[in-house]
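Before our next group meeting I need something from you. Please put the record directly below this note.
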Amino acid sequence: LKLSHIYKSFSNTAVLKDISFSIPNNSIVGLLGPNGAGKTTIMRIITGFLKADNGVIKWNRAIVNPAEDKKFRSQIAYLPENNPLYQVMTPAEYLAFIVQIKQDKSIDWKKEIKQVAKQTDIVSVLNKKIAHLSKGFKQRVALSASLLAKPKLLVLDEATSGLDPKQIVEVRRLIKSLAKNRSILFSTHILSEAKAICDHILIINQGRIVLDSNIKKVRNLEKKFIQLTQ
């Protein structure tokens, strides 16, 4: 995925100013920035919930308009920070419900649900009420739903937020495993998470990209972040 010169304003207030970056295949790109920097707006434009005012988005070298291109949107999945799960359902019921919404009969959904449940390690809780699950398992269920239909791009917003240390390690390991055959845009405000998970780092401040670098080339991320977002 490649974004070139993306702009977005709300009520004459510029939120994104000349945003350009790429998400390589089979990689995890971290999107960092203070509150209000523009992270959510970028994710919403990529996933088609918002339309950019100007700029070009390319997917596999072809220009796409996420807000209008259903084929492109079918290849991406978005997991928002507060993903709404139906607490009265079991994970099995919830995944079946997501399948009904997709209405794609070309896919063997029973097989697909089994595969994602195994991949995210929720087989043991498939028939328990979501309301009774730990936050770590709830996040796994949400990730399972986003993986249905094998998206090529996964957009994750604060995927480890609110988890305890053990759950963070487990979800972190899961996210890294998911990047083996897809690209991931991982938005977080936790710098240690970005260092542990991401291959590449983007820092956005006041609507502009102020750092675009391989994580190995950033010596002191905390110091760099403070310098660039003051």
